[in-house]
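sry for the spam today, last one i promise. C-alpha coordinates for design, 314 residues
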Protein backbone atom coordinates (compact mmCIF):
# COMPACT_ATOMS: atom_id res chain seq x y z
CA UNK A 1 0.00 0.00 0.00
CA UNK A 2 1.76 3.11 -1.19
CA UNK A 3 0.28 6.41 -0.21
CA UNK A 4 1.34 9.63 -1.80
CA UNK A 5 0.42 12.12 0.90
CA UNK A 6 0.87 15.22 -1.23
CA UNK A 7 -2.71 15.57 -2.54
CA UNK A 8 -4.05 15.00 0.97
CA UNK A 9 -1.74 17.62 2.45
CA UNK A 10 -2.93 20.05 -0.22
CA UNK A 11 -6.56 19.32 0.66
CA UNK A 12 -5.87 20.16 4.33
CA UNK A 13 -4.05 23.33 3.31
CA UNK A 14 -7.01 24.42 1.20
CA UNK A 15 -9.36 23.99 4.18
CA UNK A 16 -10.79 20.56 3.37
CA UNK A 17 -11.16 17.49 5.60
CA UNK A 18 -9.26 14.21 5.05
CA UNK A 19 -9.54 10.88 6.85
CA UNK A 20 -6.28 9.27 7.97
CA UNK A 21 -5.24 6.18 9.97
CA UNK A 22 -3.94 6.18 13.52
CA UNK A 23 -3.05 3.20 15.73
CA UNK A 24 -6.52 3.37 17.35
CA UNK A 25 -9.15 4.26 14.72
CA UNK A 26 -9.28 6.42 11.58
CA UNK A 27 -9.52 10.15 12.26
CA UNK A 28 -11.26 12.90 10.31
CA UNK A 29 -8.53 15.53 10.07
CA UNK A 30 -8.70 19.29 9.57
CA UNK A 31 -6.29 22.16 10.12
CA UNK A 32 -6.49 23.05 13.81
CA UNK A 33 -6.13 26.76 12.97
CA UNK A 34 -8.81 26.96 10.25
CA UNK A 35 -12.33 27.60 11.65
CA UNK A 36 -14.19 26.81 8.43
CA UNK A 37 -12.30 23.52 8.04
CA UNK A 38 -13.21 22.61 11.63
CA UNK A 39 -16.86 23.43 10.92
CA UNK A 40 -16.68 20.96 8.02
CA UNK A 41 -15.58 18.27 10.48
CA UNK A 42 -18.72 18.80 12.56
CA UNK A 43 -20.92 18.94 9.43
CA UNK A 44 -19.41 15.81 7.88
CA UNK A 45 -19.96 13.77 11.03
CA UNK A 46 -23.25 15.35 12.04
CA UNK A 47 -21.53 15.94 15.38
CA UNK A 48 -23.09 18.18 18.05
CA UNK A 49 -21.01 21.33 18.39
CA UNK A 50 -20.76 20.98 22.19
CA UNK A 51 -18.56 17.87 21.82
CA UNK A 52 -14.92 19.01 21.70
CA UNK A 53 -12.21 17.66 19.40
CA UNK A 54 -8.75 16.21 20.05
CA UNK A 55 -5.80 18.10 18.56
CA UNK A 56 -3.28 15.69 17.00
CA UNK A 57 0.38 16.65 16.96
CA UNK A 58 3.51 14.99 15.59
CA UNK A 59 6.12 16.79 17.67
CA UNK A 60 6.07 17.77 21.35
CA UNK A 61 7.14 21.28 20.42
CA UNK A 62 3.70 21.82 18.86
CA UNK A 63 2.20 21.50 22.35
CA UNK A 64 3.16 25.05 23.19
CA UNK A 65 0.70 26.34 20.58
CA UNK A 66 -2.18 24.78 22.49
CA UNK A 67 -1.35 24.05 26.15
CA UNK A 68 -1.06 26.93 28.62
CA UNK A 69 1.30 24.97 30.81
CA UNK A 70 2.98 21.58 30.69
CA UNK A 71 2.94 20.10 34.18
CA UNK A 72 5.40 17.51 35.44
CA UNK A 73 2.67 14.91 35.31
CA UNK A 74 1.96 15.72 31.67
CA UNK A 75 5.67 15.50 30.84
CA UNK A 76 6.04 12.13 32.58
CA UNK A 77 3.09 10.69 30.69
CA UNK A 78 4.28 12.03 27.33
CA UNK A 79 7.73 10.55 27.96
CA UNK A 80 6.19 7.20 28.85
CA UNK A 81 3.36 6.88 26.32
CA UNK A 82 3.80 9.23 23.36
CA UNK A 83 3.54 8.59 20.55
CA UNK A 84 0.67 6.37 21.64
CA UNK A 85 -3.03 5.99 22.41
CA UNK A 86 -3.18 8.42 25.34
CA UNK A 87 -4.97 11.78 25.01
CA UNK A 88 -4.13 14.41 27.64
CA UNK A 89 -6.60 17.12 28.63
CA UNK A 90 -4.66 20.24 29.63
CA UNK A 91 -5.49 23.88 30.29
CA UNK A 92 -5.62 25.63 26.94
CA UNK A 93 -3.98 28.74 25.60
CA UNK A 94 -6.50 31.49 24.93
CA UNK A 95 -5.68 31.42 21.19
CA UNK A 96 -7.04 27.87 20.78
CA UNK A 97 -10.26 28.09 18.77
CA UNK A 98 -13.47 27.70 20.82
CA UNK A 99 -14.79 25.51 18.02
CA UNK A 100 -12.25 22.86 19.02
CA UNK A 101 -12.87 22.96 22.74
CA UNK A 102 -16.61 23.67 22.67
CA UNK A 103 -15.92 26.66 24.86
CA UNK A 104 -14.15 24.68 27.62
CA UNK A 105 -10.96 26.16 29.07
CA UNK A 106 -9.16 22.88 28.42
CA UNK A 107 -7.86 21.22 25.26
CA UNK A 108 -7.30 17.53 24.48
CA UNK A 109 -4.00 16.60 22.81
CA UNK A 110 -2.51 13.43 21.47
CA UNK A 111 0.41 12.17 19.38
CA UNK A 112 -0.61 9.00 17.54
CA UNK A 113 1.80 6.10 17.18
CA UNK A 114 1.44 5.56 13.44
CA UNK A 115 4.00 6.30 10.74
CA UNK A 116 1.58 7.66 8.13
CA UNK A 117 -0.28 9.74 10.71
CA UNK A 118 2.92 11.29 12.05
CA UNK A 119 4.15 12.10 8.55
CA UNK A 120 0.79 13.57 7.56
CA UNK A 121 0.46 15.68 10.72
CA UNK A 122 4.10 16.73 10.40
CA UNK A 123 3.49 18.10 6.91
CA UNK A 124 -0.11 19.31 7.16
CA UNK A 125 0.29 20.87 10.63
CA UNK A 126 -1.54 20.10 13.88
CA UNK A 127 -4.91 18.55 13.00
CA UNK A 128 -8.14 18.23 14.89
CA UNK A 129 -9.41 14.70 14.35
CA UNK A 130 -12.48 13.02 15.76
CA UNK A 131 -13.09 9.45 14.72
CA UNK A 132 -14.01 9.42 11.00
CA UNK A 133 -17.54 8.04 11.37
CA UNK A 134 -21.02 9.50 11.25
CA UNK A 135 -21.85 10.53 14.82
CA UNK A 136 -23.23 7.61 16.83
CA UNK A 137 -21.86 4.89 14.49
CA UNK A 138 -18.96 2.58 15.36
CA UNK A 139 -15.57 4.22 14.80
CA UNK A 140 -13.78 3.21 11.58
CA UNK A 141 -10.91 0.76 11.84
CA UNK A 142 -10.50 0.32 8.06
CA UNK A 143 -10.54 2.76 5.15
CA UNK A 144 -13.67 1.10 3.77
CA UNK A 145 -15.54 1.94 6.99
CA UNK A 146 -14.95 5.62 6.28
CA UNK A 147 -16.29 5.15 2.75
CA UNK A 148 -19.37 3.40 4.17
CA UNK A 149 -20.23 6.50 6.20
CA UNK A 150 -18.99 9.35 3.97
CA UNK A 151 -19.21 7.90 0.44
CA UNK A 152 -16.82 6.15 -1.91
CA UNK A 153 -15.20 9.36 -3.17
CA UNK A 154 -14.34 10.68 0.28
CA UNK A 155 -10.58 11.35 0.66
CA UNK A 156 -9.06 8.67 2.91
CA UNK A 157 -5.39 7.86 3.42
CA UNK A 158 -5.52 4.05 3.51
CA UNK A 159 -3.18 2.56 6.11
CA UNK A 160 -4.93 -0.81 6.34
CA UNK A 161 -6.69 -2.05 9.48
CA UNK A 162 -5.82 -0.20 12.68
CA UNK A 163 -3.85 -1.95 15.40
CA UNK A 164 -5.74 -1.12 18.62
CA UNK A 165 -9.29 -0.81 17.29
CA UNK A 166 -10.69 1.24 20.20
CA UNK A 167 -10.21 4.99 20.68
CA UNK A 168 -7.44 6.45 22.84
CA UNK A 169 -7.58 6.75 26.61
CA UNK A 170 -8.65 10.32 27.50
CA UNK A 171 -7.00 11.51 30.74
CA UNK A 172 -7.92 14.80 32.39
CA UNK A 173 -4.86 16.34 34.05
CA UNK A 174 -6.63 19.56 35.04
CA UNK A 175 -8.54 18.10 37.99
CA UNK A 176 -6.89 17.67 41.38
CA UNK A 177 -6.68 13.92 40.90
CA UNK A 178 -6.05 12.86 37.27
CA UNK A 179 -9.21 11.30 35.86
CA UNK A 180 -9.78 8.86 33.03
CA UNK A 181 -12.68 10.31 31.03
CA UNK A 182 -12.61 7.54 28.42
CA UNK A 183 -10.84 4.21 29.01
CA UNK A 184 -8.53 2.87 26.31
CA UNK A 185 -5.51 0.66 25.75
CA UNK A 186 -3.35 2.68 28.18
CA UNK A 187 -4.90 1.64 31.48
CA UNK A 188 -5.29 3.19 34.93
CA UNK A 189 -2.63 0.94 36.43
CA UNK A 190 0.06 1.93 33.94
CA UNK A 191 -0.78 5.61 34.32
CA UNK A 192 -0.71 5.42 38.12
CA UNK A 193 2.60 3.67 38.00
CA UNK A 194 4.21 6.38 35.88
CA UNK A 195 2.76 9.20 38.00
CA UNK A 196 3.37 7.48 41.33
CA UNK A 197 -0.14 8.48 42.51
CA UNK A 198 -3.63 7.03 42.34
CA UNK A 199 -5.97 8.22 39.62
CA UNK A 200 -9.74 7.98 39.29
CA UNK A 201 -12.35 7.33 36.65
CA UNK A 202 -14.06 10.51 35.52
CA UNK A 203 -17.58 11.80 35.74
CA UNK A 204 -20.47 9.39 35.34
CA UNK A 205 -20.50 8.39 31.73
CA UNK A 206 -24.13 7.61 31.07
CA UNK A 207 -26.04 10.16 33.10
CA UNK A 208 -27.37 12.65 30.61
CA UNK A 209 -28.67 15.00 33.29
CA UNK A 210 -25.25 15.84 34.70
CA UNK A 211 -22.88 18.22 32.99
CA UNK A 212 -20.18 15.77 31.96
CA UNK A 213 -16.53 16.64 32.22
CA UNK A 214 -16.00 15.04 28.81
CA UNK A 215 -19.00 16.18 26.82
CA UNK A 216 -18.73 13.36 24.29
CA UNK A 217 -19.62 10.82 26.94
CA UNK A 218 -23.26 11.91 27.14
CA UNK A 219 -24.10 11.01 23.54
CA UNK A 220 -24.97 7.58 22.24
CA UNK A 221 -22.03 5.92 20.57
CA UNK A 222 -20.57 2.98 18.75
CA UNK A 223 -23.92 1.65 17.58
CA UNK A 224 -24.52 -0.57 14.58
CA UNK A 225 -28.06 -0.82 13.20
CA UNK A 226 -28.28 -4.34 14.63
CA UNK A 227 -29.22 -4.45 18.31
CA UNK A 228 -26.30 -5.23 20.60
CA UNK A 229 -26.70 -7.58 23.58
CA UNK A 230 -24.08 -8.24 26.25
CA UNK A 231 -25.22 -11.47 27.80
CA UNK A 232 -24.84 -15.21 28.13
CA UNK A 233 -25.99 -16.87 24.97
CA UNK A 234 -28.52 -19.64 25.40
CA UNK A 235 -30.26 -20.29 22.11
CA UNK A 236 -28.60 -19.35 18.81
CA UNK A 237 -30.38 -18.19 15.71
CA UNK A 238 -28.89 -17.81 12.25
CA UNK A 239 -30.06 -14.20 11.88
CA UNK A 240 -27.77 -13.10 14.74
CA UNK A 241 -24.00 -12.65 15.03
CA UNK A 242 -22.32 -14.17 18.10
CA UNK A 243 -19.00 -13.15 19.63
CA UNK A 244 -18.02 -15.90 22.06
CA UNK A 245 -15.23 -15.60 24.61
CA UNK A 246 -14.59 -19.05 25.87
CA UNK A 247 -14.69 -22.79 25.39
CA UNK A 248 -13.07 -25.06 22.85
CA UNK A 249 -15.86 -24.73 20.38
CA UNK A 250 -14.61 -24.27 16.84
CA UNK A 251 -17.74 -22.76 15.43
CA UNK A 252 -18.75 -24.12 12.07
CA UNK A 253 -21.10 -21.35 11.07
CA UNK A 254 -19.79 -18.00 9.97
CA UNK A 255 -22.06 -16.08 12.35
CA UNK A 256 -20.23 -17.42 15.41
CA UNK A 257 -16.78 -16.05 16.23
CA UNK A 258 -14.85 -17.37 19.20
CA UNK A 259 -12.28 -14.97 20.67
CA UNK A 260 -11.13 -17.49 23.31
CA UNK A 261 -10.62 -14.74 25.87
CA UNK A 262 -8.30 -12.69 23.67
CA UNK A 263 -9.60 -9.23 24.61
CA UNK A 264 -6.86 -7.55 22.59
CA UNK A 265 -8.14 -9.21 19.43
CA UNK A 266 -11.77 -8.51 20.35
CA UNK A 267 -10.87 -4.82 20.81
CA UNK A 268 -9.17 -4.72 17.43
CA UNK A 269 -12.13 -6.31 15.65
CA UNK A 270 -15.21 -5.17 17.61
CA UNK A 271 -16.24 -2.23 15.40
CA UNK A 272 -15.52 -4.19 12.24
CA UNK A 273 -17.82 -6.97 13.50
CA UNK A 274 -20.53 -4.39 14.24
CA UNK A 275 -20.28 -3.03 10.72
CA UNK A 276 -20.12 -6.53 9.24
CA UNK A 277 -23.37 -7.32 11.07
CA UNK A 278 -25.06 -4.43 9.29
CA UNK A 279 -23.61 -5.26 5.87
CA UNK A 280 -24.83 -8.84 6.22
CA UNK A 281 -28.20 -7.74 7.64
CA UNK A 282 -27.89 -9.53 10.98
CA UNK A 283 -30.61 -8.40 13.37
CA UNK A 284 -28.56 -8.61 16.54
CA UNK A 285 -25.00 -8.94 17.82
CA UNK A 286 -24.62 -11.00 20.99
CA UNK A 287 -21.40 -10.56 22.96
CA UNK A 288 -20.66 -13.17 25.56
CA UNK A 289 -19.47 -11.74 28.92
CA UNK A 290 -15.76 -10.95 29.16
CA UNK A 291 -15.38 -10.69 32.97
CA UNK A 292 -13.42 -13.92 33.20
CA UNK A 293 -10.53 -12.27 31.32
CA UNK A 294 -10.52 -9.02 33.28
CA UNK A 295 -7.21 -9.70 35.06
CA UNK A 296 -5.40 -10.80 31.91
CA UNK A 297 -6.26 -7.59 30.04
CA UNK A 298 -7.33 -4.95 32.60
CA UNK A 299 -7.07 -1.95 30.27
CA UNK A 300 -8.77 -3.62 27.31
CA UNK A 301 -11.41 -4.94 29.71
CA UNK A 302 -12.32 -1.46 30.95
CA UNK A 303 -12.29 -0.05 27.42
CA UNK A 304 -14.40 -2.87 25.99
CA UNK A 305 -17.00 -2.76 28.77
CA UNK A 306 -17.34 1.01 28.22
CA UNK A 307 -17.91 0.62 24.46
CA UNK A 308 -20.11 -2.48 24.67
CA UNK A 309 -22.36 -0.93 27.32
CA UNK A 310 -22.88 2.13 25.14
CA UNK A 311 -23.48 0.10 22.02
CA UNK A 312 -26.01 -2.01 23.95
CA UNK A 313 -27.78 0.89 25.65
CA UNK A 314 -31.07 2.09 24.24
O1 LIG B 1 -8.19 7.42 19.35
C1 LIG B 1 -8.72 8.53 19.28
O2 LIG B 1 -8.73 9.32 20.25
C2 LIG B 1 -9.36 8.91 17.95
C3 LIG B 1 -8.25 9.03 16.90
C4 LIG B 1 -8.76 9.54 15.57
O3 LIG B 1 -7.21 9.82 17.38
N1 LIG B 1 -10.11 10.13 18.08
C5 LIG B 1 -11.28 10.19 18.74
O4 LIG B 1 -11.90 11.43 18.72
O5 LIG B 1 -11.78 9.23 19.30
P1 LIG B 1 -13.42 11.66 19.13
O6 LIG B 1 -13.70 13.07 18.78
O7 LIG B 1 -14.25 10.62 18.51
O8 LIG B 1 -13.42 11.55 20.70
C6 LIG B 1 -12.82 12.57 21.48
C7 LIG B 1 -13.22 12.45 22.93
C8 LIG B 1 -14.67 12.83 23.13
O9 LIG B 1 -15.23 11.96 24.13
C9 LIG B 1 -14.57 14.26 23.66
O10 LIG B 1 -15.67 14.63 24.45
C10 LIG B 1 -13.29 14.20 24.46
O11 LIG B 1 -12.43 13.36 23.70
N2 LIG B 1 -12.66 15.53 24.60
C11 LIG B 1 -12.13 16.30 23.64
N3 LIG B 1 -11.69 17.48 24.14
C12 LIG B 1 -11.93 17.44 25.45
C13 LIG B 1 -11.72 18.35 26.54
N4 LIG B 1 -11.17 19.54 26.37
N5 LIG B 1 -12.11 17.97 27.78
C14 LIG B 1 -12.66 16.76 27.98
N6 LIG B 1 -12.91 15.85 27.02
C15 LIG B 1 -12.55 16.18 25.76
MG1 LIG C 1 -15.79 9.31 18.09
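last one done:
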Amino acid sequence: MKNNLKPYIQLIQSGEVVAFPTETVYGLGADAWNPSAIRKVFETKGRPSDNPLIVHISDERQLEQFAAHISQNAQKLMDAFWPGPLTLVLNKKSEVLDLITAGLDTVALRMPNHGLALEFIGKAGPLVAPSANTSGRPSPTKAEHVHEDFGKDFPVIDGGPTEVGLESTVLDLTSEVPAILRPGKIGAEEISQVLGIGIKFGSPQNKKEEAPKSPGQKYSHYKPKASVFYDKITVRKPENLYLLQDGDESPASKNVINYRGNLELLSRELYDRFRQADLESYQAVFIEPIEAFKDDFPAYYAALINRIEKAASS
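The pocket of threonylcarbamoyladenylate (ligand 1) is lined by residues 22, 24-25, 27, 51-54, 85, 87, 89, 101, 104, 106-108, 110, 112, 129-131, 167-168, 170, 181-182, 214-217 (CB under 6 Å). ok im logging off now
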